[in-house]
Amino acid sequence: MNFYPPPPTIQASLYVRIPDDIRCKDKESEWRGGFSRTFQNIFLEGPVYAASGDVYVVDIPYGRILRVTPSREVLVEAEWDGEPNGLAVDPDGKIAIADYKQGILTYDPTVRAIKPRLTRRNLERFKGPNDLIFDSKGNLYFTDQGQTGLTDPTGRVYRLSADGKLDTLLDNGPSPNGLVLSPDEKFLFVAMTRSNAVWRLPLHPDGTSSKAGLFFQSFGTSGPDGLAMDAEGSLF
Description:
Layout: H1 30-33, E1 44-49, E2 55-59, E3 64-68, E4 74-79, E5 84-89, E6 95-99, E7 103-108, E8 113-118, E9 120-121, E10 124-125, E11 129-134, E12 140-144, E13 155-160, E14 166-173, E15 176-181, E16 187-192, E17 197-202, E18 213-217
Antiparallel strand pairs: 1-2, 2-3, 3-4, 5-6, 6-7, 7-8, 9-10, 11-12, 12-13, 13-14, 15-16, 16-17, 17-18
Pfam families: SGL (PF08450)
InterPro entries: 6-blade_b-propeller_TolB-like, SGL, SMP-30/CGR1_Lactonase
Protein name: SMP-30/Gluconolactonase/LRE-like region domain-containing protein
C-alpha cells in the first residue's frame, strides 16, 4: 500500500549536443584510465546557470570548463591541470570550482582566469572535492568525497564562511556528493552516493550542525548524485 501519489513524469528534451571538434578524441587522461566504461571523449558534470544566460559545465577528465551561450553555441571557456567536478556562481559573479585534483578554485569569466580559492585544510590536502553551493550570505558549502564509501565512511562536508573561516560540518560521510540548501537555508541536504541515501543536516545560527539524519534511502547499484530544490522545497 502506498499513501502517496506517484511522482509526476518530467519529460526532458535535448538542449545542446557537444560538437565533435570540442571532444578530446586523441587525448589521454589519468581519470579516464580509471573509468570502468567507455565514454565519448568527454565527461560532463556540474552544470550551472549564470546571470548572463550562459550555462557552464565541466569536462572532468580533461580539466575544462565549457560554456553554452544563450544561442546554444558551445565554447571551451577554460582548461587547466585539474579534474573539475562541480560549479557554483558566487555573489560577485565569479564561478567557484570543486576540483578533485586541485581543491576549491575560482574562475573569473571577465578575465578568463583561474586561481586557487582553498587548496588545503590546514596542511592537509582534500580527499577530492565534488560539489559546492553558496547561501544567500556568500558562505560556501562543499563536499569532499574522494574515494569514500561504506568501507571508508570518512567523507566530509565543509562550510567556508564569507570571511574565510572553514568549519567541518560532517566527517563520517559514505561518499558525500551533491548538496542543496532548503529555501529558508536552515537545512543542508547531502547526497551520499555509495550508501544510496540523502542526509539532512540542520544548520545552526553559529554555522555549526548537529543531529544529522537520514532523509531518503534507496537500494541498488548506484545512489543519488546531484541535488536540486525548487522554491516549494521539493527535492530533485
